[in-house]
Design a protein that fits this description.
Elements (H helix, E strand, L loop, with lengths): L6 H13 L1 H9 L9 E2 L9 E2 L7 E5 H7 L4 H4 L6 E4 L8 E4 L11 E5 L2 E2 L5 E2 L2 E2 L10 E8 L13 E7 L7 E9 L4 E12 L2 E12 L10 E14 L2 E14 L5 E2 L18 E6 L5 E6 L4 E17 L2 E13 L2 E12 H4 L6 E3 L5 E2 L4 E26 L3 E20 L2 E5 L7 E2 L14 E21 L4 E20 L7 E19 L4 E12 L3 H6 L1 H5 L6 E13 L3 E17 L8 E17 L4 E16 L14 E13 L2 E12 L2 E2 L7 E2 L2 E11 L4 E8 L7 E3 L9 E4 L4 E10 L1
Parallel strand pairs: 6-11
Antiparallel strand pairs: 1-2, 3-10, 4-5, 6-7, 8-9, 10-11, 12-13, 12-45, 13-14, 14-15, 15-16, 16-20, 17-44, 18-19, 20-21, 21-25, 22-25, 23-24, 23-28, 25-26, 25-27, 26-29, 29-30, 30-31, 31-32, 32-33, 33-34, 34-35, 35-36, 36-37, 37-38, 38-41, 39-40, 41-42, 42-45, 43-44
Length: 753
Amino acid sequence: MKTLFTKGMLASAVAVALTQPTVAQEEATQPTNDNTEVIIVSGTPGGAGIRKIDASFAVTNIDASDIEKLAPKSTADLFKAIPGVWVESSGGESGANVFVRGFPGGGDAPFLTIALEGSPIYPAPTLSFLENSQLFRIDETIEMVEGLRGGPNPVVSNGQPGLTTNFRLKRGSDATEALAKYTISDYGLNRVDVVASGALDDDLYYMVGGYIKSSEGIRDAGFNSEQGNQFTVNITKVFNKGELNLYTRQTDDRGTWYLPTPLNIDGIDANYTQIGPLNRQGTIAYGPDGATSESFDFGEGRGWDGHVSGGSLKLELGNDWHLVDRFNLTKGEANTFGLVPNGAATTVAAVADNGATAVGAVTGTEYAGDTPIQQIGRWVVLKDIEAFTNDLAVSKSWEDFDVSFGIYSATTKANDWWSIGNTAYHVLQPGGELLDGIECNSQAEGCDWNYDINSVGDANTFALYATSTWYASDDLSIDLGLRRENHEVNYSVDEGLDGVITKALEYDETKTSWTLGANYALTDNSGVFARMNRGYKMPYFDDFRDNWGAYTGGNDLIQQVTQGELGYKFMNEDIQFFATLFANEVEGDTFVRRPGAPAEILTNEAYGVELDGRYSHDSGFSVSVNATLQETEITASANNEGNEAQRQPGWQVRVTPSYGFDIGDMYATVYGTLSAVDDRFGNNENTVVLEGYEKVDVGVTLEPTESLRLQFSVDNLTDEQGITEGDPRNPDAPNGRYIMPRSMKLSVSYLFF
C-alpha cells in the first residue's frame, strides 16, 4: 500500500487545489484535524499547489488566526514569524529592512519578493526608497501568507533566490458571511475593517473588504501622521475542469517615516520622532545653483497610492495535462518625504553665527548655546512605478514522472524625481524647528550635501523554465529545475536637475539558474529532504546609478547565489516541525553608503539552521516556535574580508504560546510572544555593535457570543528600547533606530452569518 507521500495523493491534492477553492479557504481559516493536508502553492510551477508534507523544501505558512495573534505593525513586521529572516520594521508602516539567511544587504529588502495569489507585485525586490512591503497592506481580506526561503525559488516565477512571501486572499463560498471590526489604540488609532463573502451565482463566488484608518502614530507627531484606506475585490468562477480568479486591491495609505535618532542626548528615546507641526512643512532649493525652491509637506512620510490587480486561470486539459496562468498589474505612486539625520548631534554655540545663540525660524524662540541640535535633511523622493507579470505553466503527469514547462515575463518601470540632502540645523526635540542665525541654514546648498535626480527606467525580463519530478519509489522522489532568463534594462538619469543626462545605458544579460532536490519519506508523517540551487539577483535602475564606476569598468552587477539545504520534517494532527540546515554564498554584492560614495564589492558566505515548529493540544494549548542560528562571513572584500555581515544577528528566536478556555458562557484565549535577538554589527567594518534585546507582546480575546469577539493586545509590554540599526550613511555617528515603544490596541469584531 502506498504511503501518504505517494504520487497518487499528490495528484489528488493538486486536483483539490485546482477545483475546490472554497474548501481550501475553509481549511485555511478553520483549525485543521490533519496537518498533513495543508496545501502550499509557493515554489511550484505556476503556483499549482502541493501538500506541505510532500515538499522537498521548507515553507512557513501563517494563517489569518496567526496574523491576528501576531498583530504586526506593518507587513514587514509579520515576516518576523518566518525563520531565516531578519526584519527591521522600526521605520513605520513603510521603509522596512528585510534580510534573508545571512545574505548581504545594507538596507531595504534586496532579496525579498512579495507575491499576491502567486504573482509578484513588483519584480524589482528593492529600488532606492522602495522595498516590496511598502506596496502591500495587511487587512481582514488575507487568508494566509507563505514564506519560502531558497528551495526552488531561483527557478520558478520571478526567480527570486532569497525569500518569497505569497499572500493568499480569502474567497467566497455558498455561505454568505460578513465581518465588521473597529479598532482603537492608546496612540489615537481609529480603524474600521469590513469583509464580506458569498456566492453571486452557481459556482461564482465573491469576497470584498477593506479598511479606513487614521492615527497620530505610535511615536506621536502632534498631528494625524498615519492615514489610509484600502479596498479589495476577489471574484472566483469554478468550472467543471478548472477556475478563473480575478482580483484588484486599491490602496491609498501613508505614514511617518521613522528614522535613526541620537543615542546620547537626554530626553531622546524610543518615543522621539523628528517630524512635528513646527517642521512638517519645509522649503528646499534644487536645480542649478539652487535656483528653484519649492515647499513640501514632510508629514506625508512614506506610502503607496495605487493598485495591485490580477488573476489566474487554472484548467485541467485532460489526459493528466494541467495549465496554470497567473498575471498581475501594479501601478501607482510610492513617494517618500522624510526628515533624515545627518551626522552627530552638536550644540547651538558650536555652529551659531554669534557663537552663543540661535533663533527658532517658526516660534522666534531664542535657544541657548548648550541646546542640542542636529543637521536634518529634508528628503523628497517622488516615484511613479508600474509592472506587469505573467507566469504560464503547463504540466503533465505519468505513473512515475511529472514534468512542467513555464514561461515567465515581466515589464518593470520606475520614473523618479529626487531632491535629497538639503541639510539644515534643527533643534533636537520632538518636532524641533529650523534655526535662524546659522549661516549654512540660509544657503541654497544647505549645510552639507545635496543629490537631485530625474530618471526614467524600463526593464524587461523573459524566462523559460522547466521542472521535473521522478518518483523513484513510494518513499523517494527526486526533482530538477532549470531556468534560462534574459534581462534587459534601459535607464537614463539627469543628476543635478539641469536637463543634462549624466548616465544612460542599454543592458542585456542572460543567465541560467538550476535547482536539484530530493525528498525521502521516513514514515507517513515524517521525512527528510536535500536541495542545492544556484540563482541570480539581476540589477535594476538604481544598481547602475549607484555603482556606475563598477559597471562602466566591466562589472555586470549580477549577484550569483549558491545555496544548499538539508531538512527534517514531521507533521501529524498536533505537530508541525521543520528543521533546515542551510549554507549559502553570494558573489558580487555591492554596497554604497550614500550617492556618490565608492562601491564596495563583496562575497558573503553563511551557514546555519532554521527551526519552525508548532504544537497544538486538545486542551486549548498551543505554542509556535521559530529560531535561526547562523554564522556569516565576508570572504572577499578590499577592506573587510573575514568580518561578519552587517546588521544580522547570530541567533534569534520567537516563542508564541496560546491557551484557550471557557469562562462561563464565554470562550477566552490568552497569548503572547517572546522575541530575543543577538548582538549585531552595524557596519561591514564591524566597528559598531548593536546590542541584542528581548521583546514581549501579550494579548487576550473574548468571545461572549458566536458572533461577537473582543481583542486586547499590548506590543512591547516592557517598553524595551532595542536598536535595530545604526546610521547607515555614517556608522560612526551615535545615531540609531529604536524598535517601536509600548502600545495597546482594543478591537471589537462582529460576524454576520
